[in-house]
Design brief:
This protein has five helices and no strands. It has one domain. It is 73% helix and 0% strand. By secondary structure, the protein is an all-alpha fold. The radius of gyration is 18 Å and the shape is elongated. Helix 1 packs across helix 3 and helix 1 packs parallel to helix 4. The two termini are 21 Å apart. The longest helix has 29 residues. The relative contact order is 0.19.
Length: 138
């Protein structure tokens, strides 16, 4: 479960890819410097690909193992009420990372929108997972 939750944002960010728009890329190719809210972290093209593929494989394998454990009744099926909101939070974090690290000329309006809309959505997902965890412990 931990591997799934850690790999989900990384896999999402890799699958979404760089969200720098075409106009900003064109201007950057002409020598204009791009503005970043947060500079993207990169291990190079090969390193990014290896990490992304490994994260995707880890997500698929972890999901398969959890589904198998649920089918064999090793994992209580009610645990999915905690796993799913945390996975959705991971997807949101991976997508938000790509929006915030997109290069722009001037202000990155998408980064502000992700913070204002994604922040409360992330908080709601985490509260749902926490409440469900407490309910399952009883």
């Amino acid at each position: 479960m931990v591997a799934l939750l850690l790999a989900t944002p990384v896999a999402t960010a890799w699958l979404v890819g760089d969200l720098t728009n075409g106009e900003a890329r064109r201007l950057a190719a002409e020598g204009e410097s791009l503005d970043y809210v947060v500079r993207p972290v990169s291990l190079g093209a090969t390193g990014d690909r290896v990490v992304g593929v490994l994260a995707c494989v880890l997500v698929v394998v972890s999901l398969a193992l959890l589904i198998r454990a649920t089918a064999t009744r090793t994992l209580n099926s009610r645990r999915w009420t905690v796993i799913v909101p945390l996975m959705l939070a991971g997807v949101l974090i991976g997508f938000a990372w790509r929006v915030v690290t997109a290069g722009a000329i001037g202000a990155n309006i998408g980064a502000g929108l992700v913070v204002f809309a994604g922040g409360p959505a992330l908080l709601i997902l985490l509260v749902i997972a926490a409440v469900q965890t407490l309910r399952l412990r009883r």
